[in-house]
Amino acid sequence: MAIAHAASGQLIDITPLGDRLAQAQSHALCKTDDLEVMRLVIPAQRTVPPHHVDGDLTLQCLEGEVELTTDGRTCQVAAGQMLWLAGGVEYSITARQDASLLVTIALYRPRA
Fold first, then answer.
1. Total count of domains within the chain
2. Are 95 and 48 within 8 A, CB to CB?
3. Which string of b and e fits 67-97 if b means at least 16 CB within 10 Å?
4. Cystine design at 47: which of 2, 23, 74, 94 (Cβ 3.0–4.6 Å)?
5. Residue 80 is part of which domain span?
6. How many CB atoms lie within 10 A of CB 58?
């Protein structure tokens, strides 16, 4: 069953999953025409293959640790750290340990 998106003004719990992390799944928390926020869960040693999104995005590590590769550079992102990527930039993510990430994407729409 799909998890419903939060309504405007509704609290969303993004606290670390702790013992539940290994069984958790990724899901969208809220989505509008301009914005999408999701909790991305990546098991240890799994990789999100290279891809890009058209709009800017932020990635905040809630727990665990991931390695993000973009533009030939790799950086470690641990719990409590956040990074920003410009729209259109290709990136991949590999979990060094079970990880939970808060991903916020500004959905790109061409201007008329």
1. 1
2. no
3. ebebeeeeeebeeeeeeebeeeeebebbbee
4. 94
5. 35-106
6. 15
Q: Which residues on neighbouring strands pair with residue 73, listed in sequence order? A: 70
Distances in whole angstroms, Cα of residue 2 to Cα of each of 25, 26, 80, 82, 96: 11, 11, 28, 27, 28
Write the pLDDT tens digit of every residue in 3-47: 678 999 999 999 999 999 999 999 999 999 999 999 999 999 999
Query: Is residue 5, in this structure, part of any structural domain at all?
Result: no
CATH number, domain containing residue 80: 2.60.120.10
Alpha carbons 77 and 74: distance in angstroms, whole number: 10
What whole-number percentage of the chain has pLDDT above 70? 94
Answer yes or no: is pLDDT of 1 > 50.
no
